[in-house]
Amino acid sequence: MPRGIIYVMSSVVPGLVKIGKTRIDNFESRMYNLERHGYNNVVGLKRAFAIEVEDYDEKEKLLDDIFSKSRLLNAELFALDIDLVIQLLSSFDGKQIFPINSTKEITFEEATKARAVKVDWEKVPDGEYYLNETKKDFGAVTATMKVEEGMFIVLEGSICAPTKSDWLPDARKAAIIENNTLMEDVICNSPSTAGWVVLGSANNGWNVWKNELGEPIDIYR
After folding, report:
1. pTM of the model
2. Which residues pair with 133 in a beta bridge?
3. How far, in Å, CA of 69 to CA of 76, rounded?
4. DSSP tag of 124
């Protein structure tokens, strides 16, 4: 049975992943091209998990069947929770290729924990939530976040503090901010990432975002 690699990649669009296969000797080249050039007009692809397995053609077909209802037409793109895909792939017999400094057992455990966190995220009702904080050496940070079907969207017009951090989440990197004002909506994958976009620093999103009564969204957990 031919051996090959099955992989899953995240994208710039939260909840949209790419699942694919490649030959063992072509993996790095494939990742290089996808991470730099995108796929089917989807950019920001990043490798998340890859495993070397026997009979990889059949296993990819199995994944296509399992996730058929979530597949975008004529593409290797799926509207899925990436941690669910990683859980499934890491349960296959085979050798983990990526992440390099980890094991299938650790990867599976981390994906399971991440999915448990997302269950909490789904408890936040759809609607609008507000952030009002004062940042030292800047002043008032005021923002609105819309929760819609499990997505956390920081709305255009929110006031954002500058950041001094060397590390930034992708959502903050992608945010268009002019004169400390967010110029277009930004989709985030967690309340804390949404907080990062406007505060420019690490935060506990469950506490900084509040409903119209001034209650932190932590009450929904």
Report:
1. 0.65
2. 141
3. 13
4. S
